[in-house]
């Protein structure tokens, strides 16, 4: 009797970049230095065994994502299928909560979830490092979605080292009200605004703040080199950042390439107050804790 499961369910988190330094382009990608933190906002993916050769995605997906071959979850499953030629196929079901084109690595999260789910479903001979390597082939943010927690990312963002982190952080996320932002477009605007960027690095002050466990210290060190580019494409983001600070957040930043904005609060009750006020002003708001684990099997 086979002990292999016929169905695997994976939960995978979104990310924020606590610091994002962007440098020059090398081979089509910007060199970056970033501190990733996985936050408690999750997509869920179920992978079920299917007839040989089948690789398909079902699910009621939000605007901007299709179930077709370009979906990152499908691309991840296809990559493993081509590499390992499993005897059965796979049917994926995706439940998205991470905003699409929101700067929180939602598509990357789904690719990470599919890699993990399919490797278990097909009982593949892969270790965590193999999955990180396949992830990097699918997108710069995919390895971190597998790893979770807090990490330093360099090169294209795909080369990871775990970062020491103490404490729990309370964030209020505000989703973009004017649709998503295209990551390549934000990087292009960055190039227009910064014709000769310096080689990127993460300040040790940020890493030290993270080990202190003090949200006030971390709040002082938050930065995002893509923020001016994102604001230049969606000027209202500047007003949202102001609103979050006025509502009592310690600091606010654009998350990654935006347009999600992330506000760090001093405590859970402070986050509740910030969220309540921003909601009353008409913003679409979610409260999350961080750091959380990376892609994980939950059934
Ligand atoms: C903004 C961040 O989310 C910060 O973590 C990432 O840098 C973006 O990572 P991602 O969405 O996984 O990006 P990928 O799917 O690898 O690349 C999409 C496109 O974004 C641009 N891109 C991405 C990553 C990078 N280091 N430099 C880039 O210039 C490139 O035009 C690339 O073709
Ligand atoms: N499973 C998926 N979920 C969301 N978008 C996907 C997925 N697969 C492919 N895409 C495509 O990728 C584009 C970027 O989506 P995504 O949600 O990953 O953006 P993002 O969160 O801004 O990315 P990042 O933070 O990594 O830059 C979408 O516009 C969509 O067309």
Automatic annotation (TrEMBL):
Organism: Parenemella sanctibonifatiensis
Lineage top rank: taxon: Bacteria
Biological processes annotated in GO: isopentenyl diphosphate biosynthetic process, methylerythritol 4-phosphate pathway; terpenoid biosynthetic process
GO MF annotation, one: 4-(cytidine 5'-diphospho)-2-C-methyl-D-erythritol kinase activity
Catalytic site positions: 15, 141
Keyword hit for Nucleotide-binding: yes
Encoding gene per record: ispE
Role: Catalyzes the phosphorylation of the position 2 hydroxy group of 4-diphosphocytidyl-2C-methyl-D-erythritol.
Full protein name: 4-diphosphocytidyl-2-C-methyl-D-erythritol kinase
Annotated positions binding ATP: 99-109
Classification via PANTHER family: 4-DIPHOSPHOCYTIDYL-2-C-METHYL-D-ERYTHRITOL KINASE, CHLOROPLASTIC
